Amino acid sequence: MAAERIRLRPEERRTQLLDTAQRMMFAPPGAPPSMEELAEATGVSRALVYNYFDSHAGLCLALLDREIARFDIEAVEQLANITDPDNWLVTSTKVYFDAVEATGALYLTLFANRQADQHVEQRRLQRQRFLTDAVAIQFRHLFGIGRSDAHITAALVLGMLNSAAELVAVDKHDRHDIESAYLTAARSILAASKATT
């Protein structure tokens, strides 16, 4: 006898589908589930899954957007009132690594995977440009780096941060060591950029 299906409001069902997809990525870590696998794991029809996500790429984009929104909320809360440059650098690094550590397989699949679906890759690149611009503004205001140097410095520092985050996500090294090495390198780049301004 089949289990009775529970009716959920649309936003609850969408959340359930995203939560299930994310859980499925963690055990064992890997790609987001197919639409059929997600339907089966959630106990709903494939048609219902397609009602919420028009394709596998749509599911991946929804997972990516949800994690970006979570990160943005946390970053704003943690960084809003920081005026000390080094405190901002340390706190922003911690917020980023916390998010990566919490989403390991999801981070690797959606943020670090350069072979992702073209729509996911476009969103990832769009996000990278947004972060580069936002960090460049902070470098100008907090660190006193000139406009063009701030943008170049932000791109360099974020590139290093993403490489370090991949190490955190795969849990191959001690997070404290990765964070410490990253902060040392980032401080050196910031000092050099400030010296040229």
Overview of the structural elements:
Helix 5 crosses helix 8 (175-196). The chain has helices spanning 10-26, 35-42, 46-52, 56-79, 85-112, 118-143, 147-170, 175-196. It has eight helices and no strands. Helix content is 79%, strand content 0%. The chain is mostly helical and 197 residues long.
Attribute tags:
mainly alpha; Arc Repressor Mutant, subunit A; 2 domains; 79% helix
Could you write a compact summary of the structure shown?
With 197 residues, the protein is mostly helical.
CATH architecture of the largest domain: Orthogonal Bundle
CATH topology grouping of the largest domain: Tetracycline Repressor, domain 2
The CATH superfamily of the largest domain is identified as Tetracycline Repressor, domain 2
* Cα separation of the termini: 72 Å
Content-based structural category: mainly alpha
Query: What oligomeric state best describes the polypeptide chains here?
Result: single chain
Quickly count the domains.
2
Strand residue content: under 5%
- Main β-sheet, in a few words? none
- Strand tally is 0
Gross morphology is elongated
- Output the CATH class name of the largest domain: Mainly Alpha
Radius of gyration: 19 Å
Q: Give unreliable regions as ranges.
A: none
Number of helices: 8
Helix share bin: over 70%
Helix-strand layout with pairing:
Blueprint: H1 10-26, H2 35-42, H3 46-52, H4 56-79, H5 85-112, H6 118-143, H7 147-170, H8 175-196
